[in-house]
Amino acid sequence: MKKKNLALLALLVACAMVGSFLTGCATAGNDVEATPAPTDASPAPVETDAGVPATRADGKSYLEYEVIIPGEGVGDHPAFAILTDAKAAFADIGITLEINDPSDSNVLWNALDAGVQDLWTAAWGATIDPDMYQVYHSSNVPGLGGSDSNHYRITSEALDGYIMDARTSDDQAYRKAIYKLALDEIADWAVELPTYQRQNCTVFSTQRVKMDTVTPDITTFWLWLKESEKIEMVDPNDPFVVAYQEFSQKFSPYYADTGYDMDAVDMTQIVPITTDRLGGIVFNAIEGETVNFNGTDYLYQGPADISVDYDEAANVTTYVTKFRDDIKFSDGKPLTADDLIFNYYVYLDPSYVGSTTLNSYPIIGLKNYLTQTSDEIYAEYSALVEAVYAAGPDHAWSSSDAWTEEMQTYFWDGLTANWKTDVQGIVDYVMANYLNDEYAASYANGRTAADIEASEGLKVMYGMAMWGFGSFDADGNFVGAATEKKWTLEGDDMPTLDDYYAETYAKYAGDPDAYSSVESAVGADIRGAINGEFITHFGTADPDGAGGIPNISGITKLDDYTVQVQTEGYSAPAVYSICGIQVAPLHYYGDVDQYDYENNQFGHPYGDLSTINPVQTVPMGAGPYKFIKYENKTIYYEANELYYKGAPKTKNLQFKVTTPSEVAAAVAAGTVDAGELSGTRAYFEEIRGYNSNSELTGDVVTTSRVDNLGYGYLGLNAATINIGGDPGSEASKNLRKGLATVFAVYRDVAINSYYGDAASVIQYPISNTSWAAPQATDEGYTYAFSLDVNGNPIYTSEMSQEERYDAAKQAALGFFEAAGFTVENGKVVSGPKA
Amino acid sequence: MRRFLIRRIILGIFIIIFGSLIVYAVVRSLPTSYVENIARQRSMQPNSKSYTEWLEQLNTYYGMDKSIPEGFVTWMGQAIQGEFGDSWQFTVPVTQKFSEVIWYSVILSAITLVIELSVGIPLGILAARKQYSKTDYAVTIFAMMGISLPTFFLASILKYIFAIKLQWFDLYGIVGRYHEQLSEFGQFLDIAWHYVLPVITLGMLSIGGLMRYTRTNMLEVLNSDYIRTAYAKGLPEKVVINKHAFRNTLIPLVSYMSNLLPSMFGGAMITETLFQIPGIGWTSYQALIGGDIPFTMFYMTFLIILTQISLLITDILYAVVDPRVRAN
User: Fold this and answer.
1) Based on the domain organization, do A301 and A256 belong to the same domain?
2) Torsion (CA) B103, B109, B114, B120 in degrees, nearest 10
3) Does residue A527 contact residue A415 with C-beta atoms inside 8 Å?
4) Where are the domains positioned within chain B?
5) Distances in whole angstroms, Cα of residue A153 to Cα of each of A41, A55, A422
6) Above 0.85 for ipTM, yes or no?
7) Best mutation site among B40, B172, B175, B275 for testing chain A: the one with the most A CBs within 10 Å?
8) How far apart, in whole angstroms, are the C-alpha atoms of residue B166 and residue B171?
9) For B98-109, how does the pLDDT look when each residue is reduced to its tens digit (9 = 90+)?
10) Strand ranges for A390-480 from DSSP E
11) Any residues with CB less than 8 A from the CB of A400 and at least 6 apart, and which?
12) Beta-carbon separation of A665 and B164 below 8 A
């Protein structure tokens, strides 16, 4: 070949190599594993001869764990460094940690909903009250119909007890002591490692905003938009532009589910309760109360007076909300008690699917309203259905029975139907999550995933095999585990759903509770479901209960501006929910023609909220600003001239969609006047660069920093990280403690490098802005996961950083050994055996 | 000519049909399934139907239970009548969502195109005429920079210099803070002012390419015999370049521009994201990863049709520009 051609060829080859090298590098890092669909149970673990499973309950290895971190695919998360350091440390002791950093954070949220995650990092935003019900109570494990927030899947009776106990008292010292017990129990279960407490950082434009009109003494509970009606711009014609993140455009007080949408709606709404800079309640808000904060007296005023009165003898708490008589919505119509009552009946309607904790409080008459049965009817039919169940499925009905034949048939048919639906759910779950050639080959006797998918019968078979309800004999026939029925799997000789149902029925001797607590793929309570249906079906048909329950007896209108709510017992956080809902207008969101308090009509039909949905895009209320439109990635607001505290000084407000990393730059450039950003070192340096005095507050940018009401954490899923399917056993706790101890020791360095002094490492999973947070000076305060399996401190103060890391690894090995792992030469070699 | 046109149009129709079939098949085969996501969400709510029931119901509702060819035929049948359905992701009719976002991208591309043509071609001609001179080197280096710099890098530099340091422009957004208070003409100018930085960003890239291309072709033409003849005849430089040389450069230029029409509607996702322009780039990306079939199908088919039209126009333009083609 000619020299020139040779040279060209060489160049081409070189380019190809460089190109493939570069593309290889680029794609190497992003292993986005979309985690699978529903729920939280597992196929039967693979059993070894010794009887103790050799794999974890969902087929995963005891030596491999996955942590999901929402770092946008590039490790942009404060906890990322902790994970990479821990990964190396775990590798030293024989455990493989896989870090999954998906670019789409929905991968994490879906995994949490389905309960398939091992470990994950995230952060909580907290409420003013330290109530722990929403996140740690066992009834809030996803899928059980509660708040679905208990992603740790911690189910501790002791913890449930502490949580409910702490609600009953007003005495902060008492509650703090109970919460300390609760926090210790959470630490014992080792489902959560608190990582950091960061600061909120708000930046303002010094040049365009009159900083002396921004509310002084911003605190965790008194955010900068609190007195937005007083904010003035240097140029009075200037609109006030705030940087915000992308909106989901669900601008409805009932259905907004992202924080940004909620904030957008908040500008148009008011809530009855008024709180001060420390989160305390201002009860006489109409006249106003003066409360001192850090040496300054502040006058707090609000739209309503609140009163909370606990009658010990009757064990009833009464909440009374009394509004001012001069509040108007932005369209001129007055705000009355009817509006508040309308809102209660929306949030408490059985078909409401937005998020609220209102229905977790025992409002008198609420249960009756939801089930449409009175207490007597409810008790009567509850006992009846239990009696029907106790009589058994083979009971021949006779007229001497307390129930009718129809009831008996209804119950047993319903129970069987629910059971079969649940079994179908198992098949669906298996098909969605475990259908691959590897599993198919071993569990389906050499078949492929495609084979199984093509046949309904094979799907049922696969569902049975994965859950341990059937296996293959030497001849290649599929045999039911309990009934020993055989299917050749040729032609039509396949197991059907009824066959699968029969297997489960036989295994549990017909006991639906035993079945659903162990096997159900969706965590359903099949008997509970049919019980509820039974009670509602027959209870409402009962002549004594005819007409159903027309209202919630605990909610009453005392006069045109006063509403009373009564609950059973006393619950300290209840007032924040009961008096803290937004008072959206009845005439805008509901149907005025369908509202008649005297005749038990509340603006929408019972169980039907379809009239509320269409008004989703433009919220309206009695708040300081009116929502005009969302256009060109900006929300335009105008001042509500009728606002009860006086028309806002700045007539035009805008929320402008901004990339989070550009907030400070946007303030400096004049595109926005204010915005929030996370307090990382990088941003603080950038801000210092804009100000001529190189400080955080200067001639261009003013910065406000307060502790964030929330904290960051690393979660461990008790349902997937346990020994032998028992999340609460000592062995399981030791396993999780072993993992947590290694992560814990790497927190300080990682958080410091990401946040600098804008965050601190915390030792208890509670925001240190809360009065219930244990302080370092309190008795019994310990560093998270600093004790070894024998209860002795792992670290001494003389240790160097490297020594601390080694000590952590040793302690982890101790925990793993106690959990039943085999440890040799400083490494874990295998999971638990007999 | 007419037969040629008719053949081209018929061919074009075939390509559109098969192109959209391929797109449909690919989108249906995507692992993300919008329908599954919705079914799962809804089945998790209290007292709701099971996941399988929801899946069946939604599959029927969205037409996903048919096979790919069947589903495609259904879609095609409706599309021909102009019914493209509602977007699943954005819950408004596809055509409505599309018309909301497309014009921002089209305007951006159109302005960029005008600048590209009016700056790139003359610069290319200039560089060709003064080959190897300082002008040539300067222009070539400038073009190379434009081609090599990634959009986000260039955009960030422009934003830093012009928005933060000089404060001539807003950092991002297509409207300023006073937009609502301005008159209609004022609003128009406001948006135009906000387009300056994005247009410069996109323009720098495309000018470079066009300039290089023009220069190369121009050089080739300038070295040919008939140009030398023209010079020998004593024609002034201007006439030689603008009348004789330039016309011959037009032919490859027309090829270069054949992708013009579809690229105008293609959107520039990175630029749109960096400047917070609510255009088609970001919208179609969201639709695609969300598995929104109606929107994706509409948009892809729209682009296929545009491409066909564009190629057809190019073929016609060849005839206009090149007399040899006309003679054929």
Assistant:
1) yes
2) 180
3) yes
4) 96-290
5) 12, 20, 21
6) no
7) B172
8) 11
9) 888 888 888 898
10) 470-472, 478-480
11) none
12) yes
Cβ of B52 under 8 Å from any chain A Cβ? yes
Which one-letter amino acid corresponds to residue A195? T
Write down the CATH superfamily of domain B96-290. Answer: MetI-like (1.10.3720.10)
> What end-to-end distance do the CA atoms of chain A give, in Å?
71
Q: Which chain B residue lies closest to A661 (C-alpha atoms)? A: B274
The pLDDT score that the predictor gives to residue B70 is: 85
Write out pLDDT tens, residues A146-164.
777 889 999 999 999 999 9
DSSP strand pairing (A827-830 vs A822-824): antiparallel
Residue A643 is given by DSSP the state -
Bridge partners for A352 per DSSP? none
B289 has a chain A CB within 8 A of its CB: yes
Tokens 């974890």 belong to residue: A56
Any CB–CB contact under 8 A between B179 and chain A?
A: yes
Choose among B52, B171, B274: nearest Cβ to A428: B52
pTM above 0.80, yes or no: no
A241: tokens are 């532009």
The type of residue at A170 is D
Contact predicate A587/A604, CB 8 Å: no
The DSSP secondary-structure symbol of B155 reads H
- d(Cα A795, Cα A788) in Å, to the nearest integer? 9
The structure tokens listed for A769 are 């802005």
- The neighbour count for residue A436, using CB atoms within 10 Å, is 10
Task: Classify each residue of A131-165 as buried b or exposed e, where b means 16 or more C-beta atoms within 10 Å of its C-beta.
Answer: bbbbbbbbebbbbbbbbbbbbbbbbbeebbebbee
Tokens of A304: 């309503």
A208-233 mean pLDDT: 89
Cα–Cα dist A327/A330, whole Å? 10
Indicate whether A122 and A218 sit together in one domain: no
**CA pair distance A677, A697, nearest whole angstrom:** 15
Euclidean distance between CA atoms A721 and A40, whole angstroms:
12
A143 with B171: Cβ contact below 8 A: no
Half-sphere exposure of A372 toward its Cβ, with a 13 Å CA cutoff?
18
Query: Cα–chain-centroid distance for residue A447?
Result: 40
Find how far residue B293's CA is from the centre of its chain: 21
User: What does DSSP say about strands A601-602 and A625-631: parallel, antiparallel, or unpaired?
Assistant: unpaired
Phi, psi of A544 (to 5 degrees): -70, -30
Chain B environment of A241 (Cβ under 8 Å): 177
pLDDT cut 70: percent of chain A above it: 91
How would DSSP label each residue in A740-805? HHHHHHTHHHHHHHHHGGGEE--SSSS-TTSTTSPPTTSTT---TT-B-TTS-BS--TT--HHHHH
- The answer to whether the Cα torsion of A260, A261, A264, A269 is positive or negative is negative
Region B196-219: what's the mean pLDDT? 88
* Contact: B31, A37; criterion CB under 8 Å: no
Count of structural domains, chain A: 2
Give the domain extent around A73: 64-197+721-830
Q: Are A744 and A761 in contact (CB under 8 A)?
A: no
Q: Are B55 and B38 contacting, i.e. CB atoms less than 8 angstroms apart?
A: no
pLDDT level of residue A222 (50, 70, 90 thresholds): confident
A238 and A348 in a single domain? The answer is: yes
If asked whether residues A282 and A192 sit together in one domain, one would say no
Residue A319 near residue A566, CB atoms below 8 Å:
yes
What is d(CA B292, CA B64) in angstroms, rounded to the nearest whole number? 12
Write out chain A residues lying below 8 Å of B175, CB-based: 632, 634
> Could you tell me if A121 and A230 lie in one domain?
no
- Contact by Cβ (8 Å): A625, A638: yes
CA A494 to the chain's CA centroid:
42
User: Under an 8 A CB cutoff, do A669 and B180 touch?
Assistant: no
